[in-house]
Amino acid sequence: MTEENLEIVRQVYEAAARRDAQTVLALYDPEVELDASVLGVEGQGGGIFRGHDGLRSLFRQWHEAWGQIEYDYEELVDAGDQVISLVTRHARGRASGVEVERPFALLWTLRDGKVVRVVWFLDRTEALEAAGLRE
After folding, report:
1. Per residue, what are the HEC states of 46-101?
2. Mean pLDDT for each 10-residue chunk of the chain (135 residues)?
3. pTM for the structure as a whole
């Protein structure tokens, strides 16, 4: 199951880079929970987004704020039924034109071949600790 989970996360990133929303949604469980609290975005409960509608809402907010946004994933870490991805977000503000580059770590929980939960962290150490791993 481990390699399968790593491949699912890879597929999410690849489909998102192609702006293939249909494939992205197909990889997420319909009841997925996204915790983007550290990003400062507002969901249904603070930075929590639920379901495919929540996923759409989160990405809509990002694309409204950022005229250009891309993610490069540098590493995927196997954590059993979870995967940690280390990514860098490259973005340009829609209104300001300011370019921003910010690394993040995401903790993905998968079940039955679908993403059921994603939590954003500001650094690798926090994500590893949340998964019960150490450097």
Report:
1. ECEEEHHHHHHHHHHHHHHHEEEEEEEEEEEEEECCEEEEEEEEEEEECCCCCEEE
2. 89 88 95 87 71 86 68 86 88 75 91 95 91 83
3. 0.86
